[in-house]
Amino acid sequence: MGTLLNRVTAIAGVAVILAGCTGVRHTPVGPTCISCKPYYCRGSWHYPQLYYEYNEVGIASWYGDDCHGKSKATGEPFDKMAMTAAHKTLPLPSVARVTSLITGKSIVVVIDDRGPYVYKGRIIDLSYGAAVALGIHGRKPSMVRVEVLVEDSLKLSRYAALCRRNKGIRRGRSLCQVYFEDVKGMPMPIPPIYTASHTQRLERKRSGISTRQQHPSSKRNSHSGPRKSLQAHIDHIRA
Predict the structure, then answer these.
(1) In this structure, are residues 144 and 134 in contact, taking their beta carbons and an 8 Å threshold?
(2) Tens digit of pLDDT for each residue in 4-58?
(3) Which stretches within the chain are classed as H helix?
(4) How many domains does the chain have?
(5) Of 53-62, 114-123, 134-143, 203-212, highest mean pLDDT
(6) Domain stop point among 149, 179, 196
């Protein structure tokens, strides 16, 4: 009996070690994370993830005329021809590579909306323009692989935070336009705008505790240093 117990204990220890070795390192979301709180839709709760790593195979659908011009989860109007997509739980915004397992084509989209909520197995809802580029607009829902581009997602999140503080940089453009015109191809690292942990801040928001209650002495202008370094970095890239 003692020998059997020792074997079970040894096997359990090996399993724990292997689990630790195969653990995936998660990259916390950047300073811009829209619709990151749990939400209820179509009879179930959805819990957005607070990290970017994602690589899944599933069914892709697309949406177009019926939603064109309507407001998305980010508050921006939907443009059916833009290279965008909707996902139920990925951070908004995120940048992802979508590959059709039928046509073999691959595209990069900005995920800036929530959905799809119909039909089990659908993992992403592409804009009409993205579906055309992928070659699946004339087909029934198609099998695709969705892989988040972690570095580009983090760059877009940090750049969008800069745009909120310096509105002249964005000039009324959508997150999709900002990514393809400014952020794509911009080298890392982009200095973070905030020094506090973004994940901790989001967790406090989820629990209903404000940042000011946790840190009453904090001031907005305390982050002017990182913002200036980011602005200088962007000016250097544009030059």
Answers:
(1) yes
(2) 334 433 433 433 333 344 466 899 999 999 989 999 988 889 999 999 999 999 9
(3) 2-21, 128-134, 150-165, 167-170, 175-178, 198-206, 211-214, 224-238
(4) 2
(5) 53-62
(6) 149
Tokens of 191: 């200095």
Distance CA 34, CA 177 (A): 17
The domain boundary residue, chosen from 120, 149, 178: 149
CA-to-CA distance for 216 and 119, rounded, in angstroms? 46
d(CA 52, CA 36): 12
1 within some domain:
no
| Domain ranges, residue 216 | 152-231
- 177-179-183 Cα angle (round to 5): 135
The answer as to whether 110 is a domain residue is yes
Is 16 within a domain?
A: no
Please choose, from the candidates 129, 178, 132, the residue with its C-alpha nearest in 3D space to the C-alpha of residue 152.
Answer: 178
Cα end-to-end span (Å), the chain: 74
Same domain, 70 and 102: yes
How confident is the model over 161-218, as pLDDT tens digits? 888 877 778 888 999 999 999 999 887 666 665 434 455 555 665 566 544 454 444 4
Q: Kindly report the pTM of this predicted structure.
A: 0.72
Which pair of tokens denotes residue 94?
């995120």
Spatial distance between the Cα atoms of 50 and 54, rounded to a whole number of angstroms: 11
Do residues 56 and 141 both lie within one domain? yes
Q: Are residues 89 and 71 in the same domain?
A: yes
Residue 239 lies in a domain: no
pLDDT of residue 30: 92
